[in-house]
Amino acid sequence: MSTPIGYTRRQAMLLGASASALGFGAWPTWAALIPTPRQTAGPFYPDKLPLDDDNDLVVVKGQPRPAKGEVVHVWGRVVDEGGGALSDARVEIWQCDANGVYHHPADRGGADPGFQGFGHTATMADGGYRFRTIKPVPYTGRVPHIHFAVRGPRVQNFTTQMYLADYPANERDFIFRSIDPKARAGVLVKFQPAAELFGAGAVAGRFDIVLARSLFSG
Fold this sequence. Notes:
CATH topology: Protocatechuate 3,4-Dioxygenase, subunit A
Structural class: mainly beta
CATH class: Mainly Beta
Shape: globular
Order of helices and strands: HEEEEEEHEEHEE
Distance between the termini: 36 Å
Largest sheet: 5 strands, mixed
Helix content: under 10%
Oligomer: single chain
C-alpha cells in the first residue's frame, strides 16, 4: 500500500474558514441542508479490493508511471441534515480511468494500470475527507461521474455519485435525470485552481455529503 495523502490542520482551517475566499463558495447554512440523493453503485464496484486502496488513486505501488488523465483533488465534509459532522466514517470512491474503463472484469478490459480505480479514507473529527484522483471522463452511455460510498457504525451504508458542474450533457444522463431537480445542485462539483490548499498547480473540487436523518440508527 502506498502512503495515504494527509489532511493537515492548516488545510482543515482553510477549508472551513476560508473556503469562500478561495473561490469555492461559502459553507452552506446547515438549517437549510438538502440531503444528498442516493444513487446506484452501478455494476463496477470492485469484485475484490486492490492491494493499494488508499486515498491517492494517482500513484499505485509497483507501477512505474502515475495515472493518465488530469489530476484533481476532491474534498469536503460528511455531515447530517443538521450539519453535525460524521467522524471516523469510511468514505470510498471508484471511477473509470482516463479512457473510460473500470478496473473490473465486467468491463471491457485494458484499464490503466497506473490508476488505482478505487480508494478509501476515514473522515476527520470535523467530517472532512480528501482524495487525489483524476478528473472523471465520460464513457458510452454515461457522463463524467465518481461513485461515492459512506459506511459507518452509526449510519446505514450510503451510495451516491458526483458530477461535473460544467458538463453540458448532464441532463441527457438517465441516472442524473433520476435526481429530484431540487437536489441536483448538491451533486454538481466545480473544479478550480487550489494551490493555496494543495500545492502549486493543484486543481480541486468540493463535494459535501449530507446524510438524511433516516439513515442514522439510535
